[in-house]
Amino acid sequence: MKGIKSFRPDRAARIRERAGDLLARMTLAQKIGQMTQPERLHIAPAQVREYHIGSVLSGGGSCPGRNRPADWVAMNDAYWAASMEEDAGHLAIPVLYGVDAIHGNANVLGATIFPHNIGLGAAGDPELVERIGRATAREVLAAGVDWTFAPTLAVARDPRWGRSYESYSEDPGLVAAYAGRIARGLQGAGNGDDPRRPGPGSESAHSGPNGAGLPQLGPDGVVACAKHWVGDGGTSAGVDQGDTRASEEELRRLHIAPYMPALEAGVLTVMVSLSSWNGEKCHAHRYLIRDLLKGELGFAGFVISDWNGADPLADDYGEAVAMAVNAGIDMFMVPERWREFISALTSQVEGGAVPMARIDDAARRILGVKFACGLFDRPRPALRRGAGGRRFGCREHRALAREAVRKSLVLLKNENGTLPLDRDARILVTGRNAHDRGRQCGGFTVEWQGVSGNDRIPGGASIWEGVRAVAPRAALCDKGGAAAAAGDFDAAVVVIGERPYAEGMGDIRAPGPVRPGASHPPAGPGALQPYGQTLELATLHPGDLAAIRGLASRGIPVVAVLISGRPLVIDAELAESAAFVAAWLPGSEGAGVADLLFGDRDFHGRLPMAWPNAMWPLPNGDAAGSGGAGILFPRGYGLRLG
Ligand code: GLC
Description:
The chain has helices at about 10-25, 30-35, 45-50, 70-85, 115-125, 125-140, 170-185, 250-255, 260-265, 285-295, 315-325, 340-350, 355-370, 395-410, 435-440, 465-470, 480-485, 535-540, 540-550, 570-575, 590-595; strands at about 35, 55, 95-100, 145-150, 225-230, 245, 270, 275, 280, 300-305, 330-335, 410-415, 425-430, 475, 490-495, 560-565, 580-585, 610, 630-635. It is of the alpha/beta class. β2 (about 55), α4 (about 70-85) and β3 form a beta-alpha-beta unit.
């Protein structure tokens, strides 16, 4: 596999020089401080200065003040100011703030919330994804933030995985087609480069083997983070943070190949996966991180751990930290116990378990990214051009999100020309997810696990609100009793599907505690449970089939709209519906659904993942079976109206 090309070797040399000069003046405490990333709830600005902290993050749903852009800017301004104080004991090194802006800056109230990645995969439009990256970056900058933990480049191979919706596709080719585009969209167009191929070999920072440097951010760019390295979407039975059993050839073909375009595009950071490869934790995997990513592929940015990612590596925390640092991880997401991390790593260095050269490499990479993204040269967050921005949640971004919704929907069934609906017809809109902007956004929206209801998703439109805007004789009946009203209507739109979830809480598997992920207070062992034990919608949410059946049995043609983070087994619901639309997790702009239901635009989407049927997974454990016996619709399936 070829390494990545270099970016303007002259610029790489300048970055090396500036970083090298600063590094030479740093103490061990200052270098380890740069490698430390606490969560905002557990560190004050004064401590950022005192401990020379390199980065702070918001876990999903960890939001300052009233959670408006101005509150985020004020928070970031305080952290930045503390990090830039210079005196005998402290060097001015700007702190880098990171968030999960994975489908818009969706933590923040009023943000434009784009379809989650699985819907974008159905759209099959890399150029659209780049535009979404640019809009997302602007709304991240509006909050005074410089770094997003996106894109997820997972290749989801099993819909039982709770993070399937964060994957663009089960097809590595489609993920690869998006990877470079989203990286460029997020980081901006300033990626001037001279294509040269470094050979295999050294892993030194800023200059991969032959000068592979770091791109600069565009004026509206933020630092991107390709994740989770590597194979997170390939675990057995889709268990989150589970084990990906694969030969190296399969791992490279299915899970590593999609990273190449992002690395070529100059993605500045990579996050390591909490999963394992053939039984070995990725966070301890020197071959995957130092030899392959940094050596063979020439990655010159920095590698960050995932949430407390070192913890499971050994019983002794110091030993675990040493394993992860020596494997090549440069920065550590240690939300609560960051002091313990600093102390443990300091001891491991002083005891000789971690060579000083590895610390220097880590700190040099972190400084290099901060120089490359212009962080040293930017004004404080409150004074930056885009801060608090008028672009946040703006009409232009919402129109883009609505375009993405239209392109993402997949038409699975349309009997007797049920669709498009007539705008003047009497349309009954019902179903648990019909008027619920929170549920249509899914996880990693305002809260880590997402929200239900409308009050925390200001702006945008629910699916009902989109229908109401174009069909004057439509009526909403989402609190039960729809069947009783059936006689008065010509057709019914029944919006069904999942409630929001994130990470292991979305897994489909036997009950049992889920290892916590981003920013939730662990409420005791077993508090966090998987979503359910089956992909069968009629078992997970029986009210959906009942709602469809109640109307269909009265002769009302039902248009079912499924809100879900993945394909679900829908044999029963499909049979009773005249038309069926997979809407995935469309985000804030639910009006895009009405655009297609009433024929403003034709359907465009095609399945990014094969759709299972009631036989899935086959008894022999083979999900689809050689002849596709477990598949209802193949990847690429999607009907058109015209
Ligand atoms: C989580 C996720 C990761 C996210 C991080 C910060 O555990 O695995 O994708 O970026 O924590 O929220």
